[in-house]
Amino acid sequence: MWFRNLLVYRLTQDLPFDAQALETALAAKPARPCASQELSTYGFIAPFGKGEDAPLAHVSQDFMLIAARKEDRILPGSVVRDALKEKVEEIEAEQMRKVYKKERDQLKDEIIQAFLPRAFIRRSATFAAIAPKQGLILVNAASPKRAEDLLSTLREAIGSLPVRPLSVKVAPTATLTDWVKTQKAADNFTVLDECELRDTQEDGGIVRCKRQDLTSEEIQLHLSSGKLVTQLSLAWQDKLSFVLDDKMIIKRLRFEDLLQDQAEQDGGDEALGQLDASFTLMMLTFGEFLPELFEALGGEEIPQGI
Question: What's this model's pTM, rounded to 2 decimal places?
Fold first, then answer.
């Protein structure tokens, strides 16, 4: 249940997220298998369980959890290219003529349509938490494209979803660089042992460090030569560790045993109770962690006119 990555979006207007209305809206866009000639499908699934009665919007305290599933037919490009090459060579040999681009494109489409029913199926799920009182939507994804797929489908389902990626007043790169350079992070945050340094010059170098003492002379030398920290591993209190990058993407979130043990204790013996307790505790933790992170990065930026 615990999110592994985090993209944070700010609701720019107050939306009345009614649980029953949301459930009905999500049910209008359910996940379904790809038809024989479809490349992909996208729709909502129950975040907990697969039974007919499993809700598409799980509600706990003031938070809602939703999930979407994407199904793709995987057709390797090399297979299509080889089949196209073979077909073109066959036509040119039999008909003694050149096959040009327009006809090649048509042949390629025909080959794809013929191969699609036999293509492998790949499924992937994306989870998101809605916190209406905080005005936030949190997506468990490290890719903005993957998050936007969920948000745009949610927007279609409920009719309106005025959100924007949350941004801060000071460029994260400047703050992260300062933390490594001064060897001191903001209160409650601790610099760990992993970072990425980039040269500011065009086509400049990139240095990636893992299990490295970031207070070392070698790292300081990179900083003094003009490199900036674009990714940094951090810990918050004794509850979370994560990697933050210059685009405000939180990756490789790890909830410490303290929280996981508490969720296990709160959840009781049933699997659904365990999942619900984990989700609730995770969201309560985010409710403390995210405001501190935004403040440490200079405070949230509110665009003019909003």
Answer: 0.84
- The full set of domain ranges for the chain reads 7-73+118-165, 77-117, 172-296
User: Could you give the CA distance from residue 12 to residue 290 in angstroms, rounded to a whole number?
Assistant: 17
Q: Which amino acid is at 238?
A: D
Decide: residue 241, CB within 10 A, 0-12 exposed, 13-18 middle, 19+ buried.
middle
| Ordered per-residue pLDDT tens for the chain, 306 residues | 799 999 999 999 888 788 999 999 999 999 999 887 788 899 999 998 776 778 999 999 889 999 999 998 888 788 888 888 888 888 888 888 898 899 889 999 888 888 877 788 889 999 999 999 999 999 999 999 999 999 999 999 999 899 999 999 999 999 999 999 988 899 999 999 999 999 877 677 888 888 888 888 888 888 888 889 999 999 999 899 999 999 999 999 999 888 888 877 887 777 788 888 899 999 999 999 999 999 999 999 987 654
Per-residue CA distances from 41 to 54, 77, 101, 149 (Å): 21, 20, 30, 11
- Radius of gyration of the chain, Cα coordinates, nearest whole angstrom: 24
